[in-house]
Known about the structure:
Chain A: InterPro entries: AA_ABC_Transporter_Permease, MetI-like, MetI-like_sf. The complex is a heterodimer. By secondary structure, chain A is mainly alpha-helical. Chain A has one domain: MetI-like (MetI-like fold), CATH 1.10.3720.10. Helices cover 81% and strands 0% of the residues of chain A. The longest helix of chain A is centred in the N-terminal third of the chain and has 38 residues, at 3-40. Chain A starts with a helix and ends in a 7-residue tail after the last helix. By secondary structure, chain B is an alpha/beta fold. Chain B is built from 12 helices and 14 strands. Chain B has helices at 79-84, 109-116, 134-144, 149-162, 178-190, 208-225, 236-242, 260-265, 270-277, 286-291, 317-325, 353-365; strands at residues 33-44, 53-64, 68-73, 94-99, 102-103, 119-123, 196-200, 228-233, 245-250, 253-259, 301-309, 329-339, 342-352, 369-376. Helix content of chain B is 32%, strand content 28%.
Amino acid sequence: MSANMFWLLWSATLDTLFMVAVSALIGVAIGAPLGIFLATSRKGELFAAPILNRILGAIVNALRSTPFIILVVAIIPFTRLLTGTSIGTTAAIVPLTVATFPFVARLIESSIREVDPGLIEAARAMGASPLQIVLKVLVPEARPSITLGLTLTVVSLIGYSAMVGAVGGGGLGDLGIRYGYQRFMPEMMLAVVVVLIVLVQAVQSTGDKLARHFDKRSRSN
Amino acid sequence: MLQLSPHSDKSAPGGSPNGPQSGHQSGQTDDDAIVRFASAGKRFAAPDGGAEFVALEDIDLAVSEGSITGIIGRSGAGKSTLIRMVNGLERPSSGRVVVDGIDVAAMDERKMRTLRRSVGMIFQHFNLLSSRTAYANVALPLEIAGVSKAEIAKRVTPLLDLVGIADKRDRYPAEMSGGQKQRVGIARALATNPKVLLSDEATSALDPETTRSVLALLKQVNRELGLTVLLITHEMQVVREIADHVAVLDRGRIVEKGDTYSVFARPQHPVTRTFLEGVTGVRLPAFVTEKMTSEPEPGAEAVVKIVFTGPTATDPILAEIGKTLATDVNILAGAVDEIAGKPYGTLVVALDQAALAPAQALIEERGLTSEVLGYVR
Lengths: 221, 377
């Protein structure tokens, strides 16, 4: 592999990491509160607001069911509005984030719903406010499961970030398409795939380790 | 704050000697009640808009300060709803629930949260946070109340000592046994210095030996801290072991209540009797029950259950019957027990039909109760 190729690969990897990191951060910043709200706002729950719950749930479902590649194209005007362009790494962050936050919301919602309702009752009996119940009981108890969910989110984001390469998003996917496919350089394609595999492996094993660290539910820890 | 003098609240102590006397009604007066239900009821709307479900109706109950009161009932009798009305997890639909002088039904949610700090609660499945150590679980109610870290440390360590799990302070619930978990639960419930402790089937998930040790701990905190304990259970054993007072709940209503000894010694309601069967009753051997008939037959002997209670529980009644009536008394089954620290005995005997009436009179005379179970040849 030539020095030039290596340089291209390195810079594409950095682009991918940048896209994944920024869209994961914004996606979690929007998705986590949304997920917590979805998990606690049905009838009779802590922040009961059944109508809003249903509306937000419908929006999340709509975004989740739109194929990513269509989402990328469909929200181009919105992407332009935010970043001034529709191509390049920064522009790619917009569709990635829009695809991520509903995913994060649903994952966090299901993690929170898994927490034993008896704990909510115990916290209420202690005089905890709904916000205290979320911060001191629900989130800490759901943390192992949330950690695994966020790991899954980052892994999917790496995949999606390669897909935005197809529409000029930059990063490893873009490199693989332009050099590996269009210029017919199979060694470049192979290198891109290997880097992606290594990234996914690293994210997954870090996430698993963190989740095990947070999980105090089995005696083996 | 203005305090009335001890005499001024009882109006005109010298006057009206013929006034109504309340002394004969019940041993438990409302004056020292820390928790009082006054015709409290709870209805739940049916989810499909149909008829309302009546969970509790017309509950009148006074829990005196410093007592241990047990509420017993089958599952679905309304026990859980009843105990949850004390700390406002359920609001009464009618009537009042007064805790330490405060009407719970009239409070808004914010004030209710403050009140809940003076009412601790323990649960059947402990409800400890799996992500927190024993220490941090006990610290939780204090964190919620906004107590500083230093104050929390000063409070939690002695509590862990009190419940006997100081060595488990850094252990997670998954590393503890059921009994240890319930001890953490008790320490957690005591953290905010409550006046009342609610126990929701706290020993139902524990084995008999652990149950006894947890009940002993509850009795200890009741005695040492002067804490009022209100417990619900479906096990008469639990009531017998620690409760001073008992109320029997059946289909949303209190069907019998009183001090534990009287209720156990002279149960009035069939539901109470059913609950008591496994605890105080004696089982007749099969060879007797097989031959027993409900109608007297010529030549059959009467099977009589004698219940010994109170100070006469240890008197030699059988020898007396034998001697006075010159008849033979066969003992079929018997047990001597202790309820609320007092002796309680049951004896099933067979005696000649001719001697039955005078024997029952003699038993009555001694202040004991008897019941004819049947006849056997």
